[in-house]
Amino acid sequence: MKVIAVYAGIYGKAFTNALAAIGKNPWTLLLPMGLAVAWKLLGMILGSALDPYSGGMVIGLIRSAALSIYCFFIAGLVANQKVGLEQLRASIGAYFWSWISIFFVLWVVGFVLTPVFKTNPNLELPYSLVLLIALNTVPETIYQKGTRGGIETIQRSFGFLQENWVEWFIPNGLVLGAAFAVSVFGASLMIFGALGAVASGLVIGVLLHVYAVFRGFLYEALDGSTHRQRMYRARFGG
Questions:
Q1: CA dihedral angle for residue 17, residue 149, residue 98, residue 145, rounded to 10 degrees
Q2: How many CB atoms lie within 10 A of CB 115?
């Protein structure tokens, strides 16, 4: 019971901290939807204007820029800072090369494994699941640790999960499950046409944003300590 109480306190604090940080910067609730709309529009424009190869490269650059923007503002929220759109220009390059490095490493690995997947297509799904688990804290590692190299980021992300996989995945699984249930309700708004689509996007975007900020505070709380150290501090009031 002591373990449950300790971690309930950690998760509860991460969640309340997330709500408080967003409360200082409520405009960021629209950020996921804004980035998604911009991504879709650029994808449509580039998809029709460029050939598949060059278009794919440009889209990859835009994807890295979008992730850099989002990580920049999430980092500001987790640091309890006041953030604004006047920082947008700085946000584009803040973590751009960190994400480029990650995607380059994944591209190399995918290129090497392509012959394997061609002969054993059933391995693609397990591979994707392994990536989803092993790289789960890559965003937090990038903006909290400031890692630049793709291999360094992956190593540090995996190292964090090795130490905290139970403490990390249990609350994330529960939050994702609840968010999915609510997002299903949001998706049902699509029956109301364009207005419903906008409302659905807002619902899903808001939920994902709260979840992303929660993850940032949880990563910060778990990083640099072990389960034994947390229990010791709880026992002796440290």
A1: 20
A2: 9
